[in-house]
Amino acid sequence: MHNPENAESPRGATDLTRREFLIAGTATVALTGCMGLGTKSATEMKPQQAAATRVSFHVNGKPCQLELDNRTTLLDALRERLHLTGSKKGCDQGQCGACTVMVGDRRVVSCLTLAVMHEGSLITTIEGLGTPEHLHPMQTAFVKHDGYQCGYCTPGQICSAVAMLREIKAGMPSHVTSDLTAQPKLTADELRERMSGNICRCGAYSNIAEAITEIAGRTA
């Protein structure tokens, strides 16, 4: 069989076969490694420790103090440090609303906010709204109207719904509010707009709307 590497052909001083080139390259790499050329010292390669901050806030009515990496999201602090796993990590990009909690009376997508930003805040998660023995009215309405299927989005849906009704009561308009000087009312368009940040992949939207509408009627 013809072997091009052994074929007789004129070669210059710098001509190398493929095998010779690979052997020469391997030797160069080995020599460079032994000499420490192009490498970093152990001190230079040691990863830098991230800055940490002690954060104090109230979660579901209880005072909490945590020493946190400054990059820790509120969602990760709640789930991994306080073991409040009701708030779900869905998209982790602020698009699905599964991680919605309340900071004061305002709803917050907790995967997009840093825990250190909430020093002194009053934070409420789904665990703080009610218990299996004493459900929050919105939780009861979700059960009554079957406002969930797989349940993954439900904690965020309920926290968002509770905060959304408080926003309306406080007179906060939405993008579909026609009269910015009047007290907003929970119309079908208002409900869809205000809850649009909470995605239900099972498609239980009509049942969720019925549950929210029932509670809105009681609090109007």
Short summary of the structure?
This protein is 36% helix and 12% strand. It contains 8 helices and 5 strands.
The number of distinct structural domains comes to 3
- The gyration radius over C-alpha positions equals 30 Å
Q: Please provide the ordered H/E string of secondary-structure elements.
A: HHEEHEEEHHHHH
CATH architecture of the largest domain: Orthogonal Bundle
Structure notes:
By secondary structure, the protein is an alpha+beta fold. The protein has a five-stranded mixed beta sheet, sandwiched between helices. Helix 5 packs across helix 8 and helix 6 packs parallel to helix 8 (205-219). It contains eight helices and five strands. It starts with 17 loop residues before the first helix and ends with a helix. It folds into three domains: 15-49; 52-128, Beta-grasp domain (Ubiquitin-like (UB roll)); 130-219, Orthogonal Bundle (DNA polymerase, domain 1). Mean pLDDT is 87; it is low at 31-37. Strand 3 and strand 4 (106-109) form a beta hairpin.
Layout of helices and strands:
Blueprint: H1 18-35, H2 42-45, E1 52-59, E2 62-69, H3 74-81, E3 100-103, E4 106-109, E5 122-124, H4 126-129, H5 137-144, H6 154-169, H7 188-194, H8 205-219
Helix pairs in contact: 5-8, 6-8
